[in-house]
């Protein structure tokens, strides 16, 4: 099993959206960074656990937990001309963008980046590094265990 941090803008998809439909699989669309896409394509597997991070909002941070529920598949938004994530250069026969589906696990209290920086065992988390803008980052087993035991 692997652990991940996945960022979502809460006005688009929040932990509350997942909590309202706990049996639903949510397609993690709109990732347009090759490294993040490659994490989904090459490394994420059903059963992996996710820190659900609210981003680009007044109070960013960990808002809950989710689970990878389906392996990587073509991101449907790349073919939808009405989507802000439409990619007219993506070929349906060889899609450029992939995504995974996630499912709700639980809502947590909001844990801000400032709070996370207070815990020395978490100082190496990719999300806390200067200049990191990736929407999907790996979380080590040690970081995950510390978060579950001491923070969340």
Question: How would you characterize this protein structure?
Answer:
It is a single chain. The protein has 152 residues and is of the alpha+beta class. The protein contains four helices and six strands; from the N terminus they run E-H-E-H-E-E-E-H-E-H. 26% of the residues are buried.
* String of helices and strands: EHEHEEEHEH
Number of helices: 4
Main sheet: strand order:
2-5-4-3-1-6
The N- and C-terminal alpha carbons lie at a distance of: 19 Å
Q: Key terms for this structure?
A:
152 residues; alpha+beta; six-stranded mixed β-sheet; 4 helices; 6 strands
How are the elements arranged and paired?
Elements: E1 3-8, H1 15-20, E2 26-27, H2 34-43, E3 49-54, E4 61-74, E5 98-111, H3 113-116, E6 136-139, H4 141-151
Parallel strand pairs: 1-3
Antiparallel strand pairs: 1-6, 2-5, 3-4, 4-5
Short description:
The protein is α+β, with helices and mostly antiparallel strands.
């Amino acid at each position: 099993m692997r652990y991940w941090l996945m960022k979502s803008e809460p006005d688009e998809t929040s932990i509350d959206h997942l909590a309202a439909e706990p049996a639903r699989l949510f397609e993690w669309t709109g990732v347009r960074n090759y490294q993040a896409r490659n994490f989904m394509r090459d490394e994420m597997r059903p059963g992996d656990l996710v820190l659900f991070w609210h981003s680009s909002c007044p109070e960013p941070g960990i808002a809950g937990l989710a689970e990878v529920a389906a392996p990587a598949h073509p991101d449907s938004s790349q073919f939808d001309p009405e989507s802000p994530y439409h990619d007219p250069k993506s070929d349906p026969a060889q899609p450029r963008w992939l995504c995974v589906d996630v499912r709700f696990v639980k809502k947590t209290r909001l844990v801000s980046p400032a709070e996370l920086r207070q815990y020395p065992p978490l100082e190496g988390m990719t999300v806390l590094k200067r200049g990191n803008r990736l929407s999907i980052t790996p979380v080590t087993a040690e970081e995950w265990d510390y978060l579950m035991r001491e923070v969340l």
